[in-house]
Amino acid sequence: MAFTMKQMSIIVSTFGILSFIAGVIAENKKPASGNVITGKGVVICKYPSDPTVVLGYLSVAFLALCTAFGYLSLFYPYKGKSVPQAALFRKTSFIVFFNIALGVTGLAAAMLLWPTITEQLHHARNVHHNLKTQCPTAKTGLLGGGAFLSLDSALFWLVALMLADNAREDYFEEMGNKGASSEPIKGSA
């Protein structure tokens, strides 16, 4: 199936928005702390049932799909016409936004994965021998910040896609001009 640039931008946007929504809901559903249950020489942390870990991983998965389609959309041969990567990377603005998109994606992934994995470890390792344990949860705010960065990442992929489209047009225009003859047409005055 051949994709159009509009379809690719809708796919990138959709996955970016889904990652944002899942991350924000995960942040809002995260409990402040677990319930302390004291036993003989141990503290058992009972955490309420919440979808934080699942939503955190879903947000990361949607971010990965957004990134994969964002990257693919830049180099995809639209209308069967491919452009060499060197032609795209000749444009400074494209290079800048391409690298920003990669950087923001990495930062978003780190900010989503860190609290998600931490929360999962808190739930799995809930027996503590330190009787002063307060049953902590993952740091508050990281999932929400990661969610906003994943939305930013999608926006930067879309800007890079627009700049790639401009570079494609310039490339095809150059190729069209190289094929034109510089000699005047016979019969013209």
TrEMBL record:
Entry keyword Transmembrane helix: yes
Membrane topology according to the record: Multi-pass membrane protein
Signal peptide start-end: 1-26
Cell location: Endomembrane system
Keyword Isomerase: no
One Pfam family recorded for the sequence: DUF1218
InterPro entries linked to this entry: DEAL/Modifying_wall_lignin1/2, DESIGUAL
Transmembrane region(s): 54-74, 94-114, 142-164
UniProt KW keywords: Membrane, Signal, Transmembrane, Transmembrane helix
GO cellular component terms, A-Z: endomembrane system
Family to which the UniProt record says this protein belongs: Belongs to the DESIGUAL family.
Entries under PANTHER family matching the protein: OS07G0462200 PROTEIN-RELATED (PTHR31769)
Name listed for the protein in its UniProt record: Keratin-associated protein
Annotated organism of origin: Fraxinus pennsylvanica
